[in-house]
Write a structure and sequence with these properties.
EC 2.8.1.8, iron, 15 helices, 12 strands, 8-stranded mixed sheet, two-stranded antiparallel ribbon, alpha/beta, TIM Barrel, iron-sulfur
Amino acid sequence: ARSTEPTAGITQMPAMIHNVAARVSTPSARPLSDSVKRQTRLARFLSADAKSVARVPKVAPRRHRAAAAGEDGVSLTEAEREELRSLEESGDAFERLVQLAKEGGVDIPPPVNAAASMCGPMVVPTVTGANTTERDIPGKPAGLTKPPWLRQRAPGGDRYEYLTSGLKDLKLATVCEEAMCPNLGECWNGDTGTATIMILGDTCTRGCRFCAVNTASTPPPPDEMEPENTAEAIAEWGVGYVVLTSVDRDDIPDGGAEHFARTVRTLKALKPEMLAECLTPDFQGDEGAVTHLANSGLDVFAHNIETVERLQKRVRDPRAGYDQSLGVLRHAKATGPEGLVTKTSIMLGLGESDEEIAQTMRDCKDAGVDIFTLGQYLRPTPAHLDVMEYVTPEKFDHWKRYGEEVVGFRYVASGPLVRSSYKAGEFFIETMLRDERKAEADAAA
């Protein structure tokens, strides 16, 4: 049903926002696009009286209504409304609006089928700031189609069925399934891949616009026995390398660091020879949490910076950040035991430039990162960010050479279908062997 709320007071907004709000109040208006609905919701909030309660109009789909779970919505102070007006100029107002809603105790319901983030399904700003370039404006370029090198077989086969049923019985989640990884069919039906176990539940407190994982402001509490149960199950599988990852859990004081550490400690006690990688959230920049996990006995500390600095706000949840992620990686390297390997990853095809990619690689190397991976961003659903470019395999090869030969990473995994945990054990072992052979050659010389 379309909203019939009056548009009085919206005239203070930019003309485009006012026109959008007026249009939604017109019964004969055509069906609204998601971007128009989004602007309308923003207009309703910005035009609310300082002492009144702002409500999301009924035109917004259920999964996108920030105030749907609360009868009274969100009250905005005059200062907050002024802040939102300013942020609207740069296209960042909606993210701040959602943050205010959460601070006000409004529960933001998870999207249907984990398709959209809690910060909205996509970013399509029509009011751009002075520093906005054409590259900043999202939208699928005309004629852009998925190239043949990205075609993958559908998941299936005896081994795939065995793994899926076994994981279900053990109540274990994998990021392979939750994030709709394109390599799932290869990894789970062969002997070359890595199944990445996701702990701390399957619901994230953040809503990055590239990710298909389920979101909620207050996920269920973690299973207290999960670290022990997970470690025991993995130890019985007979694998030599495991990747543990998790959703963001900003609702937990340490972000889940002790949950990670308990899993690693138990796993190492049961199977000391197993190599363990932890692909972690940023723990909100908590250095104590980073230090605690880095000294838990893991072999690889991984945290993904995801994209270049300029695109951070557009791609990631507002609570994440370029400098914060670099700080996590730097602190893990500085406070972890000697020999701890650090690793990060970025996606290509989101609108980044070559110089931005190179600068990101240099920044990560300066932060002490040993292993760097690059892969093609693939939109998991139509509700997520558009792909701006399909990067060729040849260009990915270039970045591998650049990262290893120019920047100086110990290892770079770069390819259209490379993901941060894809064939992680294979990459790690290859890196160690190469380093050992180089050391032997240097000693012989």
